[in-house]
Amino acid sequence: MHPWIIDTKKTIYSSRSTFEITMGLSSIFLAMLVMVGWSVAHPVTNGSAITGRQVMPNKICCRGNCAWKTVGDGSPRQDHLHHQVSAPITCGDGGGGTSCGISHFESHTFGWSVSVGANGPYYSGGFSVESSWTSGNSFNCNGQKPGQKVCVWMNAEYTSFQAQLAPEMNGFNVDPDCSTQSTEIIRIRAPNINNADENFYCVYGDACRNRNDEYWCEGNHQC
User: In what helix (H) or strand (E) does residue 132 lie, and over which residues does it extend?
Assistant: First the structure.
């Protein structure tokens, strides 16, 4: 064949092959675009498709050191912690009972507390209280008669008030279902700021107990 003569048969076949290859590549490219588009429209998280906007719940689990709030005015009252700070001694029969005495030379620290088990920070509730108070360290008690027990007690004055776990902390609502702290109303006791060192007093006879025995006198009860 002459070099200037075009072989139309071969040209047709060649064009057809090019067309088929082009169409094949286009189909593959379109398929890839479809797959990418589906992935963008249907992101998968942990193997499951997200069907809409998911928002984390605005809640927090309180497991300790959570904030308190005062309930109403706190329903405050004055409580007294009576604590035996010395071991008892018994006055001997000889030499007269009035010569028998006990001298106490030790300070004591009294701290705040809650009415039920809770692990939270110290909270004053807006009252004139402090997290702890340390007493003076010197007091004397003299016996009144031979054979009588003598001991030294301490009266620590506290303010007691109602409080509750704050329903909202740092913008999060407290979830009672997963919290380990009580969401009920509790009472917080804290020593008064104006506790006096002269709150020591003498106790005699069977009213003497063991050292560090104590009891609460709540409110205005005379005890």
Answer: strand 132-134
The residue type at 184: E
Torsion sign, CA atoms 152, 160, 65, 62: positive
Instruction: Look up residue 205 and give its two tokens.
Output: 């006879």
Residue appearing with tokens 């992101």: 43
Percentage helix, strand, coil for the chain under 3-state DSSP, each rounded to 5: 20, 35, 50
Measured CA distances, 66 to 48, 110, 125, 188, 190 (Å): 35, 23, 14, 14, 18
H/E element holding 49? strand 48-49
In this prediction, the residues of the chain whose per-residue pLDDT falls under 70 are 1-57, 93-99, 117-119, 169-170, 196-198
Asked whether the beta carbons of 200 and 80 are under 8 A apart, the reply is no
pLDDT digits (tens, 9 = 90+) for 26-46: 555 444 544 444 444 444 444
The pTM of the whole model exceeds 0.85 = no
Q: Write the DSSP string, 142-198.
A: E-SSTT-EEEEEEEEEEEEEEEEE-SEETTEEE-TTT-SS--S-EEEEEEBTT--GG
How distant is the alpha carbon of residue 118 from its chain centre? 7
SS3 26: helix
